[in-house]
Each structure stands twice: as structure tokens, then as C-alpha cells.
Specification:
By secondary structure, the protein is of the alpha/beta class. The protein folds into two domains: 196 residues, 3-Layer(aba) Sandwich (Aminopeptidase); 25 residues. The chain has seven helices and five strands; from the N terminus they run αβββααβαααβα. It has a five-stranded mixed beta sheet with strand order 1-2-4-3-5, sandwiched between helices. Strand 1 and strand 2 form a beta hairpin. It is globular. The protein binds zinc ion. The site of zinc ion has 6 residues, from loops.
Length: 232
């Protein structure tokens, strides 16, 4: 599905479930496509937010469909009145961006393999034949981050742009996040590079302050989940 079809699908969801989902635009891309997120939650007070974004890398279609699947799961759970899901929707607002980089994403539906494997945005660089920036590397970096893997060659796939937030898609995402940052309690950036789970502060060799707490919670959760599966 190209970007416009995803937007139509989201609009259908809003028509079907207006009390739980709304669709908002948070800007426009370099090629003037709408930048869109779906907000899913019950009640209209300012709840904590779970933020999920996908489609930063154009060719990673699986991340886009994962985001759409999450939206669908939440809405079907709501319609079936599944207790746990309704509880989640009362407790949190889910913000889901299926396609952060719609220009690149639509480009991957072009006629040949070179289109299909496109990863970056579609903005012009100063190098005539080299288009786009790796949006994933176009954000501000932490002080002391010397480990970032990227190339300053504009023609390379991991070119981070001439400066942080040089891409309009990045700027709009940062602006949206800034406007809700005190409410964001969970942030997931979904990719389909590999079966890996990256955690924050990965740029540093130091353990970050709540690392052990997080690992013990994760292990506890995994254990409960496995026991749950065995008993099911
Ligand atoms: Zn990726």
C-alpha cells in the first residue's frame, strides 16, 4: 500500500471508531505528502503516551505494516471489548506514525529494484546524482556520542544530512514530540533491519542509571509471559 492508501485506511478507521481513534497531521514532507499519526485511546484527559513510529527507512515495509497491525489490534480489541485492551486504552494514549518518511516510502513502489531498496528521504543534496538523507541519523546526538555509524558522503545510504534535523520530516517529528514530551512514557521506533532490540544510550559504553532495574523488570515480564503461555 502506498502512503495515500494508508491514509485512506486510517480515515476509514476513524469513521468506524470515532470515539477511540483520531487521525492528525503534524506537517508535510519534502515532496508535500502529509505527515500523519493516529491517536488511539479512550476518554479525553491528558493521559500518558505510548509513542510508536515506523517507516523511517523507506524500504522497511514490514515496519509500516507492523504499525498498522498494532492500530488494528487495538481497535479490534476495543470492538470486542477485550478487558485488557480496554484497560490499556483507558490508561494510555497510543500515538502511532505508520510512515515517518512518506516520500522515500512511496519511492520504493517504483518500477525496479533500485526503487525497492531505497532507504533515505528524497530531498536534494548538493551532489547532483545523490538524493536523500538517512532520517534515522538525522536527529540531534547526545554529547559524547562518538560511536555513531555513518558516512558524510552524500551518496552513501547512511548519510546523516549536513546537520541534525536538516530534513523537514525530522523537524516535524521533533516538534510533535516536544509538544507532548512530558506525557511520553514509552517510545518505540520500529524497523525491520533485523531481530534486534536496541535500547537508549547505546552510544555509550557506560550502563545508564536504570539499566539493572530495566533488565530485571524485563526478565520478570518474560518469565510471567512464559508461565502464562504454559498455563494457557
Ligand atoms: Zn531501519
Amino acid at each position: 500500500f502506498i502512503h495515500a492508501q494508508i491514509e485512506s485506511w486510517l480515515n476509514i478507521m476513524v469513521r468506524l471508531f470515532p470515539e477511540v481513534v483520531s487521525v492528525k497531521h503534524y506537517g508535510r514532507s519534502y515532496e508535500n505528502r502529509t505527515l500523519t499519526y493516529a491517536k488511539i485511546g479512550l476518554g479525553n484527559w491528558n493521559k500518558p503516551i505510548i509513542f510508536i513510529e515506523s517507516g523511517v527507512h523507506a524500504r522497511e515495509w514490514g515496519s509500516v505494516t507492523s504499525a498498522l497491525h498494532i492500530i488494528k489490534k487495538l481497535l479490534i480489541g476495543y470492538r470486542k471489548n477485550e478487558e485488557r485492551l480496554v484497560h490499556l486504552l483507558r490508561r494510555f494514549d497510543f500515538y502511532v506514525i505508520p510512515v515517518c518518511n512518506p516520500d522515500g516510502y512511496d519511492y520504493t513502489f517504483g518500477p525496479d529494484f533500485l526503487h525497492r531498496v531505497w532507504r533515505k528521504t528524497r530531498s536534494k543534496t548538493t551532489a547532483e546524482n545523490c538524493v536523500g538523507v538517512d532520517m534515522n541519523r538525522n536527529f540531534y546526538r547526545a554529547k559524547g556520542d562518538k560511536h555513531g555509524v555513518y558516512s558524510m558522503n552524500q551518496c552513501m545510504e547512511d548519510y546523516p544530512g549536513k546537520r541534525p534535523a536538516s530534513e523537514v520530516e525530522t523537524t516535524h517529528l521533533i516538534r510533535l514530540l516536544n509538544s507532548i514530551r512530558h506525557r511520553v512514557k514509552g517510545y518505540y521506533s520500529v524497523h525491520t533491519f533485523g531481530q534486534l532490540w536496541f535500547i537508549p544510550y547505546a552510544y555509550s559504553n557506560n550502563l545508564y542509571p536504570v539499566f539493572e532495574d530495566m533488565v530485571s523488570r524485563l526478565v520478570g515480564w518474560l518469565f510471567r509471559w512464559m508461565v502464562g503461555c504454559l498455563l494457557a
